Amino acid sequence: MKILKKNLLKRYNLPREIVFCKKCTMSNQRPRITFNKKGICSACQFSEFKKKKINWKIREEHLLRMLDKFRSKTNKNDIIVPCSGGKDGSYVAHQLKFKYGMNPLCVTWRPIIPTIIGKKNLDNFIKTGFDHVLGVQKQKTLKRFTALATNYLGDPFQPFIYGQYNYPVKMAVENNISVMMYGENGEVEYGGDMKYAKSPKTDMKIRGKHYFSSMPVQNWKKYGLKSEDLKEYMAPTLDKVMKNNTEQHFFSYYKFWDPQENFYYCKKHVGFQTNANRTEGTYTKFASLDDKLDGFHYYLMFIKFGIGRATSDTAHEIRDGKISRKEGAMLVEKYDGEFPKKHYKLFLKYCNIDEDQFVEIIDSWRSPHIWKKENRKWVLRKKVWDDY
User: Fold this and answer.
1) Of 6, 39, 180, 243, which is the most buried if we count CB atoms within 10 A?
2) What is the pLDDT, as a whole number, of residue 215?
């Protein structure tokens, strides 16, 4: 496997000068995020918009009308909900079934290396009364795919993301279910392409554009993966998707989205449990509990963009009024970029790489406009806690 230095400025069209949002802890290195003249990021601007401008009662009326359009009269499954047993998908599915009277088919794409707590949460969720289907990948292909994605895309989670995003569409088409309900529109809620900020659904012709890092599944053939190996990661053809009249909606358009409140809801209604200890790289212990390799997705995000898991968590908790910006900056200083040592050896073995190769891959994703060396150690050039 050839390891080459990457040009992140060019690949992600990043600004050379690093600027942090005046309201939260997010920087302009998050791909596709924008800042206004006052130095406020697009995610914070949208947060204010949804708090002050959106009439959530009217939005819920829109939701009811939309659901009535698809509601089954014969008690068959009438809506697809992607759900791993985590707090967000479980919240959406539970609301749709028990508050709005839908009959969801919940769809899980198997984590790369499932955790015990993740399996337990999924089991608890299903026992609450949900129809469920699990997509399982071929492990030989997945191992190689994960290693390739780590090196060539700087994200070991990319193979999982393909399946997580495409498998629900496959289940929708196969089961003749025309509507899918995802949780939040991440581009809008966390900062990105604001094109669909005022739309309840995405354009099925271009879905996956941002989630796939401009790397369609079939492009991996040039790295040695075969068409038959990649087939399970792909969505149905656009013709089949359109013939099924498939629509992908976001629950966050219809109901105010608050990840921490989703956690409390699921703890009460579906037996959701957290880790005993905080998650590596952040201060919380209730998000992304399903996969043992999850920490490397966030660690590489930190290497590539100088923003890690703690930055993401503090940014939306600041927007949601849970903590102040100063508190967030201090949490970022303490936890962001923490090395995910708990499953490090497992990660190396799974990807069939050694420690020297891992370090070489990591350093190939460090951009000189974000990183510099001091006393033979890598340090960030600009840090949000320096504001305090």
Assistant:
1) 180
2) 84
